[in-house]
Amino acid sequence: MDAQSFFQQFGTEEQCVAHLKALRESKGLRCKKCNSERQSWLSTRLQWECMACKFRTGIRSGTLFQHSHVPIHKWYHAIYFMTETKKSISSLELQRKLGMTRIATVWYLQQRIRIMMGGADNQAVRLSGEIELDDAFITAVNPKSKGKKDNEDPPKRGRGSQRKHPVVVMVESESNNSNKGKCGNLKMIATESINTPAINEIRNTVLKNVHTARTDAHPAYRQLGNRLNHIFQVTEGEQAGKLLPWVHIAISNIKRLLNGINHFISARYLQYYLDEFVFKFNNRFSSSKFDNLLGHVTKPILY
Ligand SMILES: [Zn+2]
Of 49, 122, 162, 284, which shows the fewest CB atoms inside 10 Å? Predict the structure, then answer.
């Protein structure tokens, strides 16, 4: 959706409230107290009142916007800018576009929207068929944990407690050794380490519908062969790019994107940044990313 049509439709708080009300009603409302579906709208309070037991439900209740005092139109605009920007929008840039004074609030909005993107992608996209799988190591800052001294587990190089964090990257692929073919959907999972239990967990959840996985010869990948056709090859350098072309393109793109963000990413939030990248990648051909994401507003956290 272009900016002009978007702001015509969603420029004001009234327009966004009316849209959110209609969206929630189209999905069906139920009273939290008595489960009745008969609800009447109290327009001055922005609440529904249960016709059976009088229990009231606010328009934000049970949505991504719950517990937030930020006007709904600011949320809508933040979702629009985050879904329509091809790469990633910095907090400062988003702050300027939204005309908000507190950067911490903008950062909060962004993180919540990234969580929503992860939930939406988990619901809508399952990998299937044949995939390429590999690991990437992404630089992130370790949060200081209570009772743990800074000098425990020191970084080998670099500043502070900055470390490389493993991420498993999987992409549907039609490529083979002689032909790059097409690529389909993508998933990226931040994990504690690349070992057999972590890969088994991914195999049993994310790869349920996958029949063939191509990897390098990392020993942690051997158990993939227990449930699916596992093709692996010892590779080095450029060869790896030929064996697993799409997964390597995805890895270099996410690294470039995260390098472009002008602050350090905390390891605690790494998955959120991956989720944003994956949501945008998997919706790259969609003309309605905003609607796709907003459709998940009532199920903000799914994992
Ligand atoms: Zn009720």
Answer: 284
Pairing mode, if any, of strands 209-216 and 47-50?
A: unpaired
Distance from the CA of 79 to the center of ligand 1, in angstroms?
Answer: 32
How far apart are the CA of 68 and the centre of ligand 1, in A?
24
Expressed in angstroms and rounded, the spacing between residue 301 Cα and the centre of ligand 1 is 24
Residues with CB under 5 A from ligand 1 (ion): 31, 33-34, 36, 50, 52-53, 55
CA of 34 to the centre of ligand 1 (A): 4
Q: How far is Cα 169 from Cα 187, in angstroms, rounded to an integer? A: 6
CATH superfamily of the domain spanning 126-144+160-265: Ribonuclease H-like superfamily/Ribonuclease H (3.30.420.10)
The rounded Å distance from CA 32 to ligand 1 centre is 7
**Tens digit of each residue's pLDDT, the chain (303 residues):** 889 999 999 999 999 999 999 999 998 888 989 999 999 999 999 999 999 999 999 999 988 898 899 999 999 999 999 999 888 888 999 999 999 999 999 999 999 999 999 999 998 999 999 999 999 999 888 776 444 444 334 334 444 567 899 999 999 998 766 677 789 999 999 999 999 999 999 999 999 999 999 999 899 999 899 888 998 887 776 677 778 899 999 999 999 888 877 667 888 899 999 999 999 999 999 988 999 999 888 764 433
In 10 A of CB 212, how many CB atoms? 14
Cα of 35 from ligand 1 centre, angstroms: 6
Beta bridge partners of 131: 172, 213
61 C-alpha to center of ligand 1: Å? 15
| Region(s) of the chain under CATH 3.30.420.10 | 126-144+160-265
pTM score of the predicted model: 0.88
